[in-house]
Automatic annotation (TrEMBL):
This is DUF4178 domain-containing protein. The lineage of its organism: Bacteria, Bacillati, Actinomycetota, Actinomycetes, Kitasatosporales. Residues 57-197 form the DUF4178 domain. Residues 30-43 have a biased composition (Basic and acidic residues). Residues 30-54 are annotated as: Disordered.
């Protein structure tokens, strides 16, 4: 009986250790999830000052080249199997001239572009190349996509849009967008974009799930 009891004791000990380790992992995972979901001070120096732009959502705050913006709302766009996001920004100091937004996509590398509304223009994306403010842009893409709206975007909860993208030198871009509704096609909205280099955009999560 002695060896048998010893074996039983060893098995019981192994089982007990396994149960304790499993319970510990569960507690740690629960605590980490709670910390991630808890509201956080976006200016807390202990926060991650890089962040992942792919996780941006309404309520977050971003900083680029010393300027801070609130994310007011987001569009989640889909064209076939390809998806990307556009985030509408509100400058914290109120000095931004015109609407600005941030596009985030992976094609296949992560690409983040900061866009500024180009006003007072009768440009149309009909030509293969366009010159704006001395820079020549060449059309790279033209199509339609479905969108889902989150937060404040000025659009309904879902719909369809048409876009045309042009690329210029030095990471500069020109974009046309118009939103399609029951009354037909809307007017073209024109924006100029600059590519955001990796590591220069700071994301402060707004908290919550």
């Amino acid at each position: 009986m002695g060896p048998f009891l010893a074996i039983v004791g060893i098995v019981a000990l192994v089982v007990a250790v396994a149960v304790l380790l499993r319970a510990r992992r569960t507690r740690e995972a629960t605590r980490a999830d709670a910390e991630r979901r808890a509201p956080r001070d976006p200016f807390d120096p202990g926060q991650d000052t890089a962040g992942d732009p792919r996780l941006l959502k309404a309520g977050d705050l971003v900083e680029y080249l010393g300027e801070r913006f609130f994310v007011r709302g987001s569009l989640r766009l889909r064209q076939g199997g390809f998806t990307w996001s556009e985030h509408y920004l509100d400058s914290m100091d109120g000095t931004a001239d015109g609407r600005r937004w941030l596009s985030v996509e992976e094609d296949p590398d992560l690409e983040v572009v900061l866009w500024t509304e180009h006003r007072g223009s009768d440009l149309r994306p009909a030509a293969g190349s366009l010159t704006v403010e001395g820079t020549t842009y060449r059309r790279t893409e033209h199509g339609t996509a479905d969108y889902r709206s989150e937060g404040t975007t000025g659009l309904g909860p879902a719909g369809r849009m048409e876009y045309a993208d042009f690329e210029g030198p030095g990471g500069r871009s020109l974009a046309f967008e118009r939103f399609l509704g029951d009354q037909g096609r809307g007017t073209w909205e024109v924006s100029l974009g600059e590519r955001v280099p990796a590591g220069t955009l700071v994301v402060y999560p707004g908290g919550g799930a």
